[in-house]
Amino acid sequence: MNKMVKLKDLGLKDFKETWDYQELLFKAILDTKIKNRREDAGLETDNYFLFVEHPHVYTLGKSGDLSNLLLSEAQLTEKGATFYKINRGGDITYHGPGQIVGYPILDLDNFFTDIHKYLRFLEEMIILTLAEYDLKAERSPGETGVWLDVGTPFARKICAMGVRASRWVTMHGFALNVNADLGYFDNIIPCGIRG
Fold first, then answer.
1. Residues 21, 52: contact at Cβ < 8 Å?
2. pTM passes above 0.90
3. Catalytic site residue from 21, 191, 192, 195
4. What are 86-140's pLDDT values in tens digits?
5. 3-state secondary structure of 28
6. 191 flagged as catalytic
7. CA–CA separation, 136 and 147 (whole Å)
């Protein structure tokens, strides 16, 4: 089992280019797993963790509701934003400058095979990172992601998550708001959560 994770900082990069790159790495891992199964090749699978910042873009997960995008195509263009319907879980979210986006592309067979545990680990990683900056972040019962001021009228999500997994290989990941223009969230019903 290969537990080594290759870290790649992609800087500011177009969403579609990054999605294509994720798909390439994801497919390479799946191809290795299929070869191992068919030929008993014994090849190790790679693991990657991509960090990136995107220009303004809205993405809608495969089970998302398009009515949660509150802009027309013309309004998207006017705001300099793009839109993609993608193959991850979750509803609609925004990515843009001032946000750290992380895409773990992992073969969970190298670690553990439990997607819910994987999501909780991602949340815990963000919670612990924010604690290093004296921010008290936590989970919100029944929701995926990381929140500030849970249980108060000021509760807000600081980190959204949406993943895809096939044959225990993951892609997509999380978006952590660091210094993002939060006004872009006014154009959607983030994660399909009103209020």
1. no
2. yes
3. 191
4. 999 889 999 999 999 999 999 999 999 999 999 999 999 999 999 999 999 999 9
5. helix
6. yes
7. 9
Token pair 């400058």: residue: 97
Q: Domains in the chain, ordered, with CATH?
A: 6-178 (3.30.930.10)
Closest to 135 measured CA to CA, from 102, 160, 161, 158:
158
pLDDT at 1: 85
Task: Identify whether the C-beta of residue 116 lies closer than 8 Å to the C-beta of residue 132.
Answer: no
- Could you give the C-alpha distances from 107 to 4, 164, 185, in angstroms and in order? 11, 12, 32
Q: Mind giving me the DSSP string for 73-101? A: HHHHHHTT-EEEE-SSSSSEEEE-TTEEE
Location of structure tokens 């001021």: 149
Token reading at 100: 């750290």
Render pLDDT for 61-95 as a digit per residue (tens, 0 to 9). Answer: 998 999 999 999 899 999 999 999 999 988 999 99
Token pair in block for residue 146: 């990381």
Could you give phi then psi for residue 67, rounded to 5 degrees?
A: -70, -10
